[in-house]
């Protein structure tokens, strides 16, 4: 469900949250009485993103295990931070490259 701000006689355009976290503060300030609805929507989007990231990491891990590779603790830590949204995909790739280079 997408949060749409109140419709006041058709004079106000609906305010939608696109999923961009930087817009969250602006929308919360505009409609403080709708915070619960907006926060529920944001929480749902964040949970969906974490789940998508978790599935991607698990698929990559399973593929690697089938080929005989076992992840080390550094890579598992980087995967966990990626799933939680603490690092981007590019940062995850950089951490993986660094771990592989340090192992050689």
From TrEMBL:
Pfam families in the cross-refs: VbhA (PF18495)
Keywords carried by this UniProt record: Plasmid
Region feature (Disordered): 1-34
Classification via CDD domains: VbhA_like
InterPro entries: VbhA (IPR041535), VbhA-like (IPR033788), VbhA_sf (IPR043038)
Domain of life assignment: Bacteria
Entry keyword Oxidoreductase: no
Antitoxin VbhA domain mapped to chain residues: 53-98
Protein name: Antitoxin VbhA domain-containing protein
Taxonomic classification: Bacteria, Pseudomonadati, Pseudomonadota, Alphaproteobacteria, Acetobacterales
């Amino acid at each position: 469900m997408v949060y749409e701000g109140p419709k006041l006689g058709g004079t106000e355009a609906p305010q939608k949250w696109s999923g961009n976290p930087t817009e969250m503060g602006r929308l919360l300030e505009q409609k403080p009485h709708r915070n619960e609805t907006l926060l529920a929507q944001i929480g749902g989007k964040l949970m969906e993103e974490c789940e998508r990231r978790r599935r991607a990491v698990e698929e990559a891990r399973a593929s690697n295990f089938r080929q005989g590779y076992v992840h080390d603790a550094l890579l598992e830590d980087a995967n966990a931070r990626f799933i939680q949204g603490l690092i981007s995909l590019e940062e995850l790739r950089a951490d993986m490259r660094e771990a592989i280079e340090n192992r050689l």
